[in-house]
Queue: 2 jobs
Job 1
Amino acid sequence: MAAPSYGAKDIEVLEGLDPVRKRPGMYIGSTGLNGLHHLVYEVVDNSVDEAMAGEATRIDVTLLADGGCRVVDDGRGIPVDPHRSDRRKSAAEVVLTTLHAGGKFGGSGYKVSGGLHGVGVSVVNALSRRLELEIDREGLRHRIEFVDGGKPLGRLVVTGKAPRNRRGTSVAFWPDPAIFNSEGTEFRAQTILERLQIYAFLNKGLEIRFRDERPGHEQEQTFRYTGGIVDYVRHLNHAKEALFKRVGHFEGAETDAEVEVALQWNTGYHEGIYSFANGIATIEGGMHEEGFKKALTNVVNKYARAKGLLKEKDDNLLGEDIREGLTAIVSVKMRDPQFEGQTKAKLGNVSIRSLVERVTNEKLADWLEEHPTEARQVVQKGIQAARARVAARQAREVIRRKTLLEGAGLPGKLADCSSRNPEESELFIVEGNSAGGSAINARDPITQAILPIRGKILNVERARIDRMLKNTEIQSLISAIGAGVGDEFDVSKIRYHKVVLLADADVDGNHIRTLLLTFFFRQMTDMVERGNVYIAQPPLYSTIVGKEKVYLKDDAAKERFLAEHPNHKNDFPRMKGLGEMDFGELKATTMDANRRTLLQVSVEQAALADGVFSVLMGEDVDARKHFIQTNAKDARFLDI
Ligand code: 0RA
């Protein structure tokens, strides 16, 4: 076979992009699905930069029917004039075929840019089997195409007039299956949508349209937020109960750097500070977050003292007290962001700390003065959190002292199993005394222990941890599990490797399950993390077949049954509560290891129980699934 003949231009191209094809992971993280989607972000980033420079107002992202992705913006367009290094080539060709050739690195016209993501469209070109670039500039439409990882099919040519004198850049690319050979080249709309929405939140007024043209996946969605990060905070607090309606907002700048903050408290306990540098999520935090937190603690304490809400004898509120239930966005834009840390998601620039601190100290103090009602609520919530913190510590102390004095005394209500091997031991926490009675009869006494818990352990909507710890039922639970609680919880000491919540599918059952999940999540986190917590699934329906009673777990199981037994005429009475099942039924449907189904609780679910009640445990399984998928997958939106 004849060796392919390369001209000088080809050799240069190969030199330009070869490193990317050799080690794609260095440029896009991985060649799995994450890396694949990175290509989209890479292209969109450039358009977003154009928007940040005040030159673009709209970005269209389209997943093409043939598997490609097209990103169009209405910015200035990549420059088309002959490049200074090689007059035969257009600047656009050089940008697409050379690493780091983008305008961003020359610093021309760009105030800020992502930095990390700035490796540019050339990387996308290198990892695509085809890329089509169209530029509308100075009234003309220009076009150039690349194949096989960035080889130009020709030079940039003018194909006609730019329609309606529009300007902007269009990049369409088809990822190379030879590169993305492990998980394929099929984009996931949801993944892209989530990212686009964040871009839209962070760039006030920017319109981002998404369109999926793939057969069977057709959909369209537009994001545009005139409130920017204020809308973002509202969105994050949407499923929660806001402490007050207003979202606080302030900004400030110095040469080469600007900061914008939006914040609102909710009645929950989770602290959600989401920070960004040049539009990139800084999941590991960094200097901007440090500056914000320090100033927040300072400003709120000062305000509380000035208004007499904290007396001279009172201790200052801790940062964690003030941040309880806080949802905040801290967004900085700056030259040369330094990304550090394990995942390069921590902002290292020391100078930004003092800017954010200064701006927050000044502007947040103003905001509190201007909004005394909200300010008072913030302080009151902080004071309550501080009290709860002290009370929880005291309650833990009491429990610890009790176990020290009384040894490993087990609670009287516990019907323990005889096995002392945690691996095979199961603890069923059963709602209601009568249900507890059936469970004791239904169990395998060697491996299954029963702890009955009264239905109304706590008749507070959202129990605070300190109140939970003082509750005798919870104290029994702690000693039954036998591994301590809170900071002292030691998962290696748990007496049962399965801790199973068994409660009715009604309102009270949901309540107690949610409380217990919240408790486990906050006070026995490792146990949840290791997958030791389960939810028992008693059946929802039964029906009679011949002489036998058949149990059906849920509506889906009922549908399946009907499909398999089209002539079935008997009805499907809804199962009554646990207390009304006899022990034979309870054993057959819920407890017998060979016949039951248990739902293993993930950290995500437990986290959601901590913040979101109805959605997690509600009837609407689809809404729940959707919620968990969209909120918990991304660690930043996980309520931990
Ligand atoms: C280099 C210089 C200029 C703009 C761009 C690149 C640019 C790149 C992309 C990529 C996607 N959309 C884009 N829009 C613009 C500045 C050009 C000038 O000063 O006119």
Note: The CA atoms of residues 72 and 170 lie 4 Å apart.
Job 2
Amino acid sequence: MLTTSKPTVIDTLDAFKALDLATLAPRREPDKVLMCSPDYFCVIDVKNPYMEGNAGAIDLDKAKAQWELLKATFERLGFPVEVIPGAAGCEDMVFAANQTLPGLDAEDRPYVLLSNMRHPSRQQEVAHYRAWFEAHGYRILELPSADMLLEGQGDALWHPGKKLIWGGHGHRTDRSTYDVVAALLGVPIVALRLVTDKFYHLDTCLSLINETTAMVVPEAFDAEGLAMLHEAFPNLIEIPASEALGCFAGNALALGGRHVIMHPGATQTVSRLRAQGLDVIEVDTSEYMKSGGSVFCLKMMIY
Ligand code: ARG
């Protein structure tokens, strides 16, 4: 075990209430970003509803320009960006949120848990990320069996500042995988069932901003999941489903607990964020939305 926190999976409000967030081990937030260059990005098959009808529809020059602007935005906010080169034949590798789950052990050393991706075409991406993290001094952790599905930070989100994971399941990640992950990492996991395939990854419908603030698409969760989120985040901002579907507002990325980077056009969500004093930065990700991803999907936070 890497930490001393209680490694249990929680999926009821009663169990969640018994967990005292204040007593959880603190976690240093990552201060760098890993992105994957979009050289081989395209849509080939349909892995999520957004990809329907978009095979061959990516404008690669436009996609590259959008990626560069996102990278420059991270850098401008003071987060240096490392780049892993995209690999031929890995058309979705640019979505750097999915192949791994990086964390810190009890001695504050970085590790990375490798994903077991659902789609065969994405499984080959993981070896490239493994090599990158190995070369950068991370301890590599693997699940004991390849059929335990886990899609990294697409589904497993660290609670801001704490050694606690919010774990989405039902489409890409299996609920049962979290029992193994909790024991392996020694951290409690709050399991959230995703009820519709429009919100196939947790990062399409939940955006954690700081220890008290998060954004959520209520329609994506069951009643128990939503109740646990309300319990955890006194300041839970609702994203209208139309803005989550049309603008990927649920896939916003918060940096430094204050800046929120998101695709433009989610007017209600943006005004709710600004009313809280948060700094909203809009960056166009339209080419990536054709593949079912936006800002959060296009990066991995690293140490
Ligand atoms: N086309 C990719 C897939 O379906 C998109 C992944 C988006 N990533 C994310 N973290 N939601 O797998």
Note: Residues 1-5 have pLDDT under 50 and may be disordered.
